[in-house]
Write a structure and sequence with these properties.
It contains 15 helices and 21 strands. By secondary structure, the chain is an alpha/beta fold. A hairpin with a 2-residue loop joins β1 and β2. The protein binds magnesium ion (MG).
């Protein structure tokens, strides 16, 4: 994942512990980050991974060596740490996390003073310092200090409560099952829900960086346990977080798991009712459902490249207050323009309480789409040419080329073709009003791509 001249991927620095990402590198990354900020006050925290404390100490060594003062917040959800950066008026922050990656990974995210991850241009500045050995180290009497900062989880939960109707939610006595993936999701959401008057049943709630309960990515195949538990205990809702609790995937009262754009659309609808003509920021990988809701409730969709940093940065640039991804990332600007699992959970409960409807009823009211996925192998050196040729072929259709090629057809079906960043393949995502049409789109575009490949 980490190449000779590149540290950052789509979501910070990531790598397999002691193979791709070593403590030595972490010290050097720390001194590059410290040089980038320049003798400032930075917050630092980590998720539940076994390597978290080791990398925290290494990065702190690098940061303080360049004269930055570190406020160490310990273990907390990524959004709690992001909120603390803003709330404590830090100059920035560093989070040791590999988010949804398997347990053998860890990573380093860099946060700006507003709690949002730094832009890709800023990442390049840090990479240049790192690779060109340009870190500026402080004199022995100008080294940074390290202090503990406690209470970030409590402040975070208090902040979330301000954005929902606590009394209304409490009246309903909801029973919620929380699957924290044995990570930091368990440090905030169950307590927050209790404060909202819910009965909470927690699974995978003990902190364990080996992730014994399930893999940290909240994909349907990893969420059978939360779905079964919701049914077994007769809960109203289930929620599962990823490894650093910025993404949340929901389960209805019947144990049915929803992919993220369905629940995001609920939040979008509720938000647009109160915020006419608001901009909704979402990657081109999101369902047409998100556009349908914007059309019906007078919102304006801004399509972006895939990746949470791009969504946050676009929201910041356009002063937009809501963003969402199909993978369960919801960016609620009035709280903070970053993905936030506990905030999303509170918003879903707020909507259920406000409408008096069950989650299944709320989702069934929305337009329904069927999804089909596919992939076509493509050598790295042909990836660019293939995209060029495909763009030529679909000229005249309703197309966006902000990330790969996305085509919206008149019959409400849609097709996204994107080169994979990690494998020598093109990925295809089709969506339609029925399964047959979605499958047909994958078939048609797979053969279209193969034909183009033969010609180049
Ligand atoms: Mg995450």
């Amino acid at each position: 994942m980490i190449s000779s001249r590149k540290l950052f991927g789509t979501n910070g620095i990531r790598g397999i512990v002691n193979k791709e990402l070593t403590p030595e590198m972490a010290v050097k990354v720390g001194s590059a980050i410290g040089t980038f900020f320049g003798k400032k006050n930075l917050l630092l925290g980590h998720d539940a991974r076994t390597s978290g404390p080791m990398f925290a100490k290494a990065v702190i060594a690098g940061l303080t060596a360049t004269g930055c003062n570190v406020f160490f917040a310990g273990m907390a959800p990524t959004p709690a740490l992001q909120f603390a950066v803003k709330n404590h008026r830090m100059d920035g922050g560093v989070i040791i996390t590999a988010s949804h990656n398997p347990p053998e990974y860890n990573g380093i995210k860099v946060i700006w003073d507003d709690g949002i991850e730094i832009s890709h241009e800023q990442e390049i500045e840090i990479e240049n310092i790192y690779f060109e050995e340009k870190a500026r180290f402080a004199e022995w009497d100008k080294l940074g200090t390290t202090r503990e900062l406690s209470g970030v989880n409590d402040e975070y939960m208090e902040a979330i409560k301000k954005h929902v109707n606590i009394a209304k939610i409490a009246e309903k006595h909801y029973h919620v099952v929380v699957d924290a993936a044995n990570s930091v999701g368990g440090l905030a959401a169950p307590l927050l829900l209790r404060d909202l008057g819910c009965k909470v049943t927690s699974i995978n709630a003990n902190i364990d960086g080996t992730f014994p309960g399930r893999l940290p990515e909240p994909r349907p195949e990893n969420l059978q346990e939360v779905a079964l538990t919701v049914k077994a205990v007769g809960a109203d809702l289930g929620v599962a977080f990823d490894g650093d609790a910025d993404r949340s995937i929901f389960v209805n009262e019947n144990g049915e798991i929803y992919w993220g754009d369905k629940t995001f659309a609920l939040i979008e609808k509720d938000f647009l009712k109160e915020n006419l003509n608001a901009k909704i920021v979402t990657p081109v990988s999101s369902s047409t459902l998100v556009k349908d809701i914007a059309d019906a409730y007078k919102g304006e969709i801004v399509w972006t490249k895939v990746g949470s940093v791009t969504v946050s940065q676009t929201m910041k640039k356009l002063k937009a207050n809501l963003g969402g991804e199909e993978n369960g990332g919801v960016f609620y600007g009035p709280h903070q323009a970053v993905r936030d699992g506990a905030m999303t959970t509170a918003l879903i409960l707020d909507i259920m309480a406000k409408t008096g409807k069950k989650l299944s009823e709320l989702i069934e009211e929305q337009p329904q789409y069927f999804i089909e996925k596919g992939k076509v192998e493509c050598p790295e050196d042909k990836k660019e040419k293939l995209l060029e040729k495909l763009v030529e072929q679909v000229k005249g259709l309703n197309v966006s080329t902000v990330d790969g090629v996305k085509i919206w057809f008149e019959d409400k079906s849609a097709m996204l073709v994107r080169p994979s960043g990690t494998e020598s393949v093109y990925r295809l995502y089709a969506e339609a009003k029925n399964q047959k049409k979605a499958s047909k789109l994958i078939e048609d575009y797979s053969s279209k791509l193969k034909k183009i490949l033969e010609s180049i």
